[in-house]
């Protein structure tokens, strides 16, 4: 067990966990932030995507010991009022079916748009293909990303 | 206007009552659909059943709350079902609050999400509920204002009279709650719909995009422990012994134990399917700790051998022998090949197919195969349970609380009214969550651990557990005469452990001489409903076969189907044909027109078409494939659907698009195979799901416009995708694809 002071959604949160504990489970089991989802645990589905210093990472692969001073942003902290452009676009396009994958999809999309504000279809495909949606909402996700890019 | 008789309607019964904080509540009881008083006792109903809850609650301060009866797994019932109530109630949709209802089959109906049934089953009762509440509010206003009820109008939640009086619903709710529900109710004519048929956003949209804890896996209470089960490594194996000493030394671990899910002789209902009966359980504080500690278990496994299950439910009480042994896909395929040559059970016969085949100028025969499929719901199986001697509280994702409750009641030895099941939003279902073994497991674990427990399946647990879509095969034969007319049709289908044949579906009824046969091979690999059970294979095989037959006949595939449907309509062969030829033809002509079938401008695409009827709705797709980097990709899809009145068009479109993507993914990649009883796929690195870059660029969805009562949409668009993909692939590759997943018969794409 080790104690970490993690910077999560702008706040310092202290946790006492085994150093190997993936950030995913730190968030879900220790910090009551269940918006980040478990889908595979092996970096295959993207459901657990969060931002580490602004860049999308798979939290199921990131042990608590490797986070250090880097700032973690989860879906709960993507915006104060749920009005990040990506979140608004998701609502406008009524993207979700079951909704389980969508936090991860939005975190990936927000990260993509930050570095590439006007991605092409191919760039969206390339960036987003690590995020599985079992319900098949891919077309709407792409439309939502493109509508954000236009603004 | 329609008039509906509320008191004589056997399916529902309306009752109004006062809300404790002021206001009214309108309940619909499904009790009246039960024939005998015994049923009431069996269900253990409280006397005051109708007074406790209901679909509609209007408080004195004018909050209109509508309860969604059915669990939500992404089909958007939480929006669509309340829309139906709101339509007849005549309220402003903006002011409506929607909540998931509690589990209570007597007040909220069957509460089963599956079989594309939610909209179809609730359409009428929910309209009646809305219309009855509106009528009572008008009556309350009429009495208060001393005017005839006919003169009281409503508009978006406001009552008014020409004399200038007006009141909102909340103001009249108290009084309305004391009035009698009328005998006859007027329902709106479809042309007057103001909410239904107008797209409404997902009522949980804001919660989803902000990551609120909606799902079972998110559910937690103070002091909750985490449990995981170590399943045997293969079907046909069971626990022999275990050594937990290393596991117990790991941090956060509370206990390790084994327990039996069902005692010997337990009578399983139809949805009590389970794969493993001896459970080796690790209970601890957090997910990661339990996951790791579970790896330290030293367990010995042994073959189960043949086992006897006692089944009840449909078909009566009977003993079923589950064969022992460690099965492999290769030997299963051999066995299927062998059985397909043997006589099978006749399911339907019209005319004299044997003679027709003997005299045929040409016989076309093709065999199609499809593997087991795992549901792979994005949220793995999990459930919360807190069981004490007095009661059980369970919460999590499931499709049919009413089916598992009697099982829990028997196993926990608690009356049904001491079992509370809360339905969380589900991260997908696809049929998988109709099988509630994981609730029973969670409940038994909580009971033994004497603590609130969340049972979690890892992705690997979930994928290798079973309850798969069965493995199917079917051989189709068509007999043509010298003029290339279709004179006979024969299908012989088999599967592990069931065949997929729907003997009374198209093209039955359209061919003079017709024979359908089925056979099956028992197995210890468990199976269950998977999005459009059986249809999801039939549509692939049959629609692919019809394409090939049309080609041999020199006919356009759509024109050929339309000819058959014309025959089925004008001069149907045989009895019990399940489909309506007009509606079937309707989706085909719609998709033909919308896709520009045979029209110039589509030359760059390899086009395939398919149509199917299942779960009371009709679907047709045209799939357009292009080659990119030497590989075929579905670029565009045109879909035509007939599900009667479309409640929420944009959400319905989303669901059809999702079904199309799901169909393409499973047709290309879906497969769960076995070696010596062990699943060969365990996570998404070796079970391939369709991803962003493989989804079509456009899926153009069209609905046949009519005023028919609505039917479901979760399943019907799915099956024909497989056939349309197969037919388009043929155009792209120049060869037919008979075995799913199609990717296996192509060069590797990745
Ligand atoms: S849970 Fe991390 S990628 Fe799937
Ligand atoms: S919306 Fe269900 S998995 Fe994406």
TrEMBL record, chain A:
Keywords: 2Fe-2S, Iron, Iron-sulfur, Metal-binding, Oxidoreductase. The keyword Iron applies. InterPro entries: 2Fe-2S-bd, 2Fe-2S-bd_dom_sf, 2Fe-2S_ferredoxin-like_sf, 2Fe-2S_ferredoxin-type, 2Fe2S_fd_BS, Beta-grasp_dom_sf, Diverse_Oxidoreductases. GO terms for molecular function: 2 iron, 2 sulfur cluster binding; metal ion binding; oxidoreductase activity. Pfam families: Fer2, Fer2_2. Residues 2-78 form the 2Fe-2S ferredoxin-type domain. Coiled coil: none annotated. The keyword GTP-binding does not apply. This is (2Fe-2S)-binding protein.
TrEMBL record, chain B:
This is Xanthine dehydrogenase family protein molybdopterin-binding subunit. It comes from Larkinella humicola. Keywords: Membrane, Transmembrane, Transmembrane helix. The chain crosses the membrane at residues 12-31. Residues 210-305 form the Aldehyde oxidase/xanthine dehydrogenase a/b hammerhead domain. InterPro entries: Ald_Oxase/Xan_DH_a/b (IPR000674), AldOxase/xan_DH_MoCoBD1 (IPR008274), AldOxase/xan_DH_MoCoBD2 (IPR046867), AldOxase/xan_DH_Mopterin-bd_sf (IPR037165), N-heterocyclic_Hydroxylase (IPR052516), OxRdtase_Mopterin-bd_su_IorB (IPR012368), TAT_signal (IPR006311). GO terms for molecular function: oxidoreductase activity. The lineage of its organism: Bacteria, Pseudomonadati, Bacteroidota, Cytophagia, Cytophagales.
């Amino acid at each position: 067990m080790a104690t970490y002071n993690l910077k999560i959604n702008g706040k310092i949160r202290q946790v006492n966990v085994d150093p190997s504990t993936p950030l995913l489970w730190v968030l879900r089991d220790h910090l009551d932030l269940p918006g980040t989802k478990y889908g595979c645990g092996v970096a295959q589905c993207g459901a657990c995507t969060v931002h580490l210093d602004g860049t999308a990472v798979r939290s199921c692969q990131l042990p608590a010991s490797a986070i250090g001073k880097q700032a973690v942003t989860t879906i709960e902290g993507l915006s104060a009022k749920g009005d990040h452009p990506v979140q608004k676009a998701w609502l406008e396009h009524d993207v979700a079916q079951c909704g389980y994958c969508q936090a991860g999809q939005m975190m990936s999309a927000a990260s993509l748009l930050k570095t590439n504000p006007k991605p092409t279809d191919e760039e969206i495909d390339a960036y987003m293909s690590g995020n599985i949606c079992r319900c098949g909402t891919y077309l709407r996700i792409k439309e939502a990303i493109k509508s954000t890019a236009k603004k | 206007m329609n008039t509906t008789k509320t008191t004589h309607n056997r399916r529902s019964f309306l009752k109004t009552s006062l809300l404790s904080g002021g206001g009214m509540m309108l309940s619909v009881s499904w009790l009246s659909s039960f024939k005998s008083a015994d049923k009431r006792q069996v269900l253990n109903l409280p006397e005051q059943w109708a007074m406790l809850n209901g679909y509609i609650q209007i408080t004195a301060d004018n909050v209109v709350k509508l309860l969604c009866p059915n669990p939500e797994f992404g089909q958007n019932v939480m929006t669509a079902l309340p829309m139906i109530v709101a339509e007849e109630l005549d309220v402003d949709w903006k002011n409506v609050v929607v909540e998931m209802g509690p589990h209570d089959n007597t007040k909220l109906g069957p509460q089963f999400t599956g079989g594309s049934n939610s909209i179809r089953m609730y359409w009428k009762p929910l309209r009646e509920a809305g219309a009855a509440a509106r009528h009572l509010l008008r009556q309350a206003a009429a009495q208060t204002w001393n005017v005839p009820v006919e003169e009281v109008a409503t508009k978006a939640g406001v009552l008014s009279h020409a004399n200038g009086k007006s009141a909102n619903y909340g103001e009249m709710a108290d009084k309305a709650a004391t009035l009698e529900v009328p005998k006859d109710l007027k329902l709106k004519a479809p042309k007057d719909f103001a909410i239904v048929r107008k797209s409404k956003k997902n009522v949980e949209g804001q919660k989803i995009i902000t990551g609120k804890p909606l799902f079972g896996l998110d559910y937690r209470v103070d002091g909750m422990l985490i449990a995981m089960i170590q399943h045997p490594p293969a079907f046909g194996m069971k626990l022999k012994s275990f050594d937990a000493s290393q596991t117990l030394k790991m941090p956060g671990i509370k206990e390790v134990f084994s327990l039996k899910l069902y005692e010997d002789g337990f009578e399983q209902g139809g949805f009590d399917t389970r794969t493993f009966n001896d459970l080796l359980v690790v209970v601890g504080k957090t997910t990661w700790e339990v996951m790791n500690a579970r790896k330290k278990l030293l367990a010995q496994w042994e073959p189960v051998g043949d086992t006897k299950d006692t089944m009840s439910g449909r078909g009566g009480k009977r003993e079923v022998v589950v064969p022992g042994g460690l099965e492999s896909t290769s030997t299963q395929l051999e066995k299927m090949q062998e059985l397909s040559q043997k006589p099978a059970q006749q399911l339907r016969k019209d005319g004299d197919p044997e003679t027709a085949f003997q005299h045929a100028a040409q016989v076309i025969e093709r065999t199609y195969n499809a593997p087991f499929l795992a549901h792979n719901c994005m949220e793995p199986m999990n459930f919360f349970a807190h069981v004490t001697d007095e009661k059980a509280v369970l919460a999590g994702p499931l499709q049919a609380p009413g089916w598992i409750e009697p099982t829990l009641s028997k196993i926990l030895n608690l009356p049904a009214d001491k079992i509370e099941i809360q339905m969380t939003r589900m991260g997908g279902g696809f049929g998988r969550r109709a099988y509630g073994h994981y609730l029973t497991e969670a409940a038994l674990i909580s009971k033994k651990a004497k603590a609130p427990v969340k049972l979690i399946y890892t992705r690997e647990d979930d994928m290798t557990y079973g309850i798969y879509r069965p493995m199917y095969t079917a051989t189709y034969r068509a007999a043509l005469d010298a003029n290339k007319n279709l004179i006979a049709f024969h299908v012989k289908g088999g599967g592990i452990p069931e065949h997929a044949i729907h003997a009374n579906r198209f093209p039955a009824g359209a061919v003079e001489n017709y024979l359908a046969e089925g056979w099956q091979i028992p197995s210890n690999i468990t199976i269950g409903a998977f999005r459009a059970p059986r249809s999801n294979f039939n549509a692939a095989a049959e629609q692919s076969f019809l394409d090939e037959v049309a080609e041999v006949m020199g006919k356009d595939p759509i024109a050929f189907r339309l000819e058959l449907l014309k025959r089925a309509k004008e001069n149907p062969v045989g009895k019990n044909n399940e489909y309506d030829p007009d509606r079937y033809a309707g989706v085909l002509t719609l998709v033909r027109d919308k896709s520009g079938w045979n029209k110039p401008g589509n030359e760059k695409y390899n086009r395939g078409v398919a149509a199917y009827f299942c779960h009371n709705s009709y679907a047709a797709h045209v799939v357009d494939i292009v080659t990119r980097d030497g590989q075929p990709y579905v670029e565009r899809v045109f879909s035509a659907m007939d599900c009667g009145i479309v409640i929420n068009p944009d959400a319905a479109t989303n669901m059809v698009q999702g079904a199309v993507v799901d169909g393409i993914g499973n047709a290309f990649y879906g497969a769960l195979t076995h070696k010596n009883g062990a699943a060969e796929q365990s996570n998404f690195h070796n079970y391939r799901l369709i991803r962003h870059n493989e989804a079509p660029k456009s899926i153009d969805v069209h609905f046949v416009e009519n005023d028919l009562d609505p039917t479901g949409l979760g399943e019907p668009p799915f099956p024909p995708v497989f056939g349309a993909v197969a037919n388009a692939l043929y155009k792209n590759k120049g060869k037919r694809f008979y075995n799913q997943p199609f990717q296996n018969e192509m060069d590797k794409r990745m």
